[in-house]
Amino acid sequence: MTEQNQQSLETLQDIKRIMERSSRFISLSGLSGIAAGICALVGAWFARNEFKPYYKNYNGRGGYEATDFQELKFRLLIIAIAVLAAALASAFYFTWRKAKHNKLPIWDLTAKRLTINMLIPLIAGGLFIMAMYQYNEWRFIAPACLVFYGLALVNASKYTLSDVRYLGLFQILLGLINTQFPESGLYFWAAGFGIMHIIYGFVMWWKYDRNG
Amino acid sequence: MIEMGKVNNKSFELKNPITGLNKIFDNRIRLGIMSVLMVNEEINFNDLKQMLEVTDGNLATHLLNLEDNGFLKVKKGFVGKKTNTTYSVTKAGEKAFTDHITALENMIKGVK
Questions:
Q1: What's the CATH architecture for B2-111?
Q2: What are phi and psi of A89, to 5 degrees?
Q3: In the Cβ-directed half-sphere of A92, how many Cα atoms lie within 13 Å?
Q4: Cross-chain Cβ contact A12/B101 below 8 Å
Q5: Are residues B97 and B25 in contact, defined by beta-carbon separation less than 8 angstroms?
Q6: Minimal Cα–Cα distance from B47 to chain A, Å?
Q7: With a CB-CB cutoff of 8 Å, which residues 74-113 of chain A face chain B?
């Protein structure tokens, strides 16, 4: 009887494990979040350094100069692309490592679902932000990054660890607050993409990966 | 004799949680297939194979068995020129599986 009981328990645990594994992508690593956050902070530091010569010239001249602005714009775009590439690569690496360690496939049905559902708000946001960039509407670029990224996370949370939802909600909130302080965009951006990623990554690592 | 039978029958109803258990789900692969289908609206053969880590022939046999029992629906389609067979759970399959889980849970609770 006890043996049978034990068997039933194991069967139920198997069922639960298979249901979880086949409906959510569970290999997302906490270290991925930390790595992405560090990339964002380094990027924000480089971006901040770009503003110094720009404002020095601006104040020295006593006014706006289109070529200077275009130069700054271009340099910031390059930094942004570099940060995105580095963050994606490092986030992917740690998640790949975790999947390999747990002998789970990295590119299965759940990974595809997660990717598609994350990309929909993310690409829409990316194009929207590029349009703002095109028309020199710089004030709401940082808030839009945070809000669209937050929406992407909330959407993605249905297909991966549900904790991602809270990170998403915080990013949205931060983005909306940022709309009232558009001059501080870079700091809000660094707080959202840098610090919040690191905190989230650490909490996830503590919760799921520490013993693995 | 009759009275004995009655007593047995009564205790069977009260204590025996095995009533909801389904022989069909004794097999681990069939149990796995049902677990996946319960949380996925629709899934194709290859994704199912990857999820359960089984061979083509093995999976096909158990899928056929579940289909014959009326527990799953099969939809044959095409993705480009390749055939794409997708599976989903039927109402009967959902009920049988839920009953099976309830029976397992009762067995654990019953012994405590």
A1: Orthogonal Bundle (1.10)
A2: -60, -45
A3: 9
A4: yes
A5: yes
A6: 6
A7: 105, 108-109
**ipTM score of complex:** 0.78
Q: What 3-state class would DSSP assign to A195? A: helix
Cα distances (Å, whole numbers) of residue A176 to A142, A150, A170, A172, B96: 10, 11, 10, 6, 49
Judge whether A6 is closer than 8 Å to chain B, CB to CB.
Answer: no
pLDDT along chain A (212 residues), means of 10: 82 93 92 97 97 91 90 96 97 94 89 95 98 96 98 96 96 98 97 98 93 70
Q: Which of A207, A100, A101 is nearest to A161 (CA)?
A: A207
Can you give the residue ranges of every domain in chain B? 2-111
- Report chain B's C-alpha Rg in angstroms: 18
Among the listed residues B27, B32, B23, the one whose alpha carbon sits nearest the alpha carbon of residue B99: B23
